[in-house]
Design brief:
Blueprint: H1 2-64, H2 69-88, H3 91-102, H4 106-121, E1 125-126, E2 129-130
Antiparallel strand pairs: 1-2
Helix pairs in contact: 2-3, 2-4, 3-4
Length: 131
């Protein structure tokens, strides 16, 4: 009976040591995950700041050359929406939206959408941005 008790205590001590080792590794793993998450968050924040600065520079350049940066941004946003519609296969809806927003006629709107579609097919439209 005494040997059995010693054996149980020994196994209990070994199990406790193993449990502490596992917990230590989990804590270390969580710290590594948190470090990675913090790194990704920093990269995203830096990218957002860089994009904001780039937009400011582009606006200043556009204003310097007499172009309205706001109109350019509106056109880019419109092109992004039209691109999404073309990607969904809704060419008719893209023509209608361009016609409504631009105030152009049906022929001009179809021509604009055809040109945008051509740019997409020729891969001069990457993601949702004209190249």
């Amino acid at each position: 009976m005494g040997i059995l008790l010693v054996l149980l205590i020994t196994l209990s001590i070994i199990a406790t040591i193993l449990l502490f080792q596992i917990l230590k590794q989990l804590k270390s793993s969580n710290q590594h995950q948190q470090t990675l998450i913090n790194g990704v968050d920093k990269i995203q924040a830096d990218s957002a700041r860089s994009m904001s600065r780039l937009e400011d520079y582009l606006s200043a350049i556009a204003e310097h050359f007499g172009k309205d940066a706001h109109d350019h941004r509106k056109q880019r946003n419109l092109d992004t929406r039209l691109y999404a519609l073309l990607k969904e296969g809704s060419k008719g809806e893209a023509v209608k939206q361009y016609q409504d927003i631009s105030g152009k006629g049906l022929k001009e709107s179809e021509k604009y959408i055809d040109e945008l579609e051509r740019k997409i097919k020729n891969k001069s439209y990457s993601g949702d941005t004209l190249v």
